[in-house]
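Morning run. Coffee first, then this:
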Amino acid sequence: MPKSKSKRQRYQPPPKKKPKPSPTWLGATILTVLILGLAVIVLNYLGIEEVLPGAPRNLYLWSGLGAIAVGFGLATQWR
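And here it is:
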């Protein structure tokens, strides 16, 4: 005798696999890059430009912002 529709089991997809945890060095790298980028920007506004005397005016600002962007990019990989 065929089963009624209410007695049939519904399809259940297999459970999702849990992603592997992040490596231990990733958290320290994220914080280091973010703090380094912030320090470069602060030093730029304080007028510390003796490291590269012939560098363009906004080199330090853009490099600091780039470091912060890299830090945020790394933070998206954190699990």
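The first helix runs from residue 24 to 46. Good start to the day.
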